[in-house]
Amino acid sequence: MPKLVICGSMALDTIETPYGKRQNIIGGSASYAALAAAKFCPVGIISSVGNDFDLKRFSSVGKRLDLTGVTILGRTLRWSGRYDYAMQEAKTRSTKLNSMAHFRPTLPAAYQSAGFYLLANADPRAQLELLRQVKPKGQFIAADTMNFWIFRERAKLLKVIKRIHLLCLNENEARQLLETPNLVQAGQRVLALGPAFVIIKKGEHGALLFSRTGIFAAAGYPLESVIDPTGAGDALAGALMGYLASQIRLSSTLTVSEPLVRKALVIGCTLASFTAEAFGVENLVAVGKEEIRNRYEVYQKIHAF
Amino acid sequence: MPKLVICGSMALDTIETPYGKRQNIIGGSASYAALAAAKFCPVGIISSVGNDFDLKRFSSVGKRLDLTGVTILGRTLRWSGRYDYAMQEAKTRSTKLNSMAHFRPTLPAAYQSAGFYLLANADPRAQLELLRQVKPKGQFIAADTMNFWIFRERAKLLKVIKRIHLLCLNENEARQLLETPNLVQAGQRVLALGPAFVIIKKGEHGALLFSRTGIFAAAGYPLESVIDPTGAGDALAGALMGYLASQIRLSSTLTVSEPLVRKALVIGCTLASFTAEAFGVENLVAVGKEEIRNRYEVYQKIHAF
How many other C-beta atoms lie within 10 A of the C-beta of residue B105? Predict the structure, then answer.
């Protein structure tokens, strides 16, 4: 039975960076998040793909993935993007939503006992649809989003934010959504909307965690080689939630402490760093427990003074 | 007798940000660095100003500043710049080098016993000129620079870098100088040129410290209000060197340990954060030992996991 349910997109990506090109590789927010989370606990995915997506191969690359919640319809979402020399943000060449266009998530009965939910980047209407199906019994719910939805579905997105415990978004999204250039102000404005935790992801510069008890500033893991940053933020959120789910027992008094979220965020940064070191989900699939532990220990050393 | 000698520019700045405008306020790399450093040890300045610079007032706002090395010639360097809403980088409106145009630093006899030197941002020809005058007896020498000199005086700048122990520069300068978008590669390439330590400043995102023993990633101090980031990087370098100078006795076996540089860098980030919270050197002048200590302790809390 999955401890963590991840709802989001599954896609076939075509990515070009100064280091090469890959066509129709596994992509999508739910794919990255689930492969990262599954390093820590059993994960149930809710998404939609087409017949052109090799689900069998996907479930074999990621262990402990339950695909009961993945519906098959038409063709898979296709995204094509390009990174320039500085490897900061991808320039989208084309997006074809295909099977994700009218995605209506359905929570399978087998997922009902999960204590953790991650609404990975997707249409806020789909995120709300899933929230309606979650029977409240103390679950811890996180959501991610992107600039597209901030512009198109701000009201719906704010509804999602009111219902969740942790919001995860990147720095430009935070500035857009909260209408301030200052990240500390942005973080605090999100807390005022409801979530107990806010994580602002800053790519190579790490992340900021805001909560009622203060701020945690996590530096980015210094990478000598960035091959493809696609999905690193999704992997961060997935690993963070997967780690939390592995550490906490679901009960009516489920509490997620701030120190535990700090540790989970560092583990998230670690998985994000592995993700960026190779194309697509290549590294996320390949990396083992010991490598994760080793990098976590290196991170501790580079962060201490 | 100064423990730390700081050579660089002194200026009168006109700065406009979304929070207001200030005309002809104290500016320049040496001014910011010296006011920050003087919180920790006696500082001797080497620079050049005009008759229009109120040196008396300057020496009264900063305690423990020795101005023997400041020559008076013509008019003071004038810089005018503007920050937009995002408060990232200043757009220069005008620069008149004036008295700094033909600045030839001279090391006063009273400064000869100093163990620490900071060549703050200035023409690398002036930095080399000063290096020629330093009688080698185990001093620890740091230098800062900027994009202007990387383009105009690359060869001279590389000569400076070969002679120093710590190079301090911001992330875009690092990318330009070392010809790589990757900061880890940039840092390691500087180490290969000679310096034992390299600090890459990343503004609100903190700084990276590179040395033979590894990397230290210092997150930026999260500021809710950034009024004017001018000089924050100079204050960082000044505070870092002032703190080191206050902790280490000059001897033929002067050694600066990596853990001490980590701590000094965090103190530098602390002073940089104060600087950005007000126009010009306002906060740098006003802030007391207790406020610095308190913010250092807050920084420890936001950085730990």
Answer: 23
Determine, for residues B182 and A224 on separate chains, whether the beta-carbon distance falls below 8 Å. yes
What is the DSSP code (8-state) at residue B3? S
- The pLDDT of residue B253 is 62
Give CA–CA dist A127/A161, Å, rounded: 10
Compute and round to an integer the Cα radius of gyration of chain A. 18
Among residues A180, A171, A212, A220, the alpha carbon closest in space to that of A194 is found at A212
Cα–Cα distance, A30 to A144 (Å, whole number): 11
Total-model pTM: 0.94
CA distance A24 to A276: 18
Residue in this structure with the two tokens 């005086």, named with its chain if needed = B153
Q: Give the three-state DSSP class for B67.
A: strand
Q: Which residue of A has its CA nearest to B184?
A: A224
CB atoms closer than 10 angstroms to residue B287: 20
Residue carrying structure tokens 């961060």:
A236
Residue at A195: amino acid letter: P
- DSSP code per residue over A86-133: T--SPEEEEEE-GGGTT------GGGTT-SEEEE-SS-HHHHHHHHHH
Can you point out the beta strands (E) in chain B?
A: 4-7, 11-17, 20-27, 43-49, 65-72, 77-82, 91-96, 116-119, 140-144, 166-170, 197-201, 207-211, 214-218
- The SS3 of residue B14 is strand
**Which residues does chain A have within 8 Å of residue B224's beta carbon, measured at their own beta carbons?**
182, 184-185, 188
Tell me which residue of A280, A285, A5, A35 sits closest to A143, measured CA to CA.
A5
Tokens, residue A120: 């990975």
The DSSP bridge partners found for residue B142 are B118, B166
B 125-154: CB under 8 A from A: none
Distance CA A46, CA A64 (A): 14
Distance between CA atoms of residues B115 and B248, nearest Å: 9
b (16+ CB within 10 A) / e for A2-13: bbbbbbbbbbbb
The token pair that represents B194 in the structure block: 């000679």
Q: B103 CA to chain A: closest CA distance, Å?
A: 36
Residue B238: strand, helix, or coil:
helix
For B167-200, the pLDDT digits (tens) are 999 999 999 999 999 999 999 999 999 999 999 9
pLDDT tens across A67-109, in order? 999 999 999 999 999 999 888 889 999 999 999 998 999 999 9
Tokens 């969740």 appear where? A164
The CA distances from residue A113 to A165, A246, A252, B136, in Å, are 18, 14, 12, 71
Sheet architecture: strand order including B77-82: B20-27, B11-17, B77-82, B91-96
Contact B47, B58 (CB under 8 A): no
Which of B83, B113, B110, B39 lies closest to B271 in space, CA to CA? B39
Tell me if B206 and A204 make a contact (CB, 8 A cut-off).
Answer: no
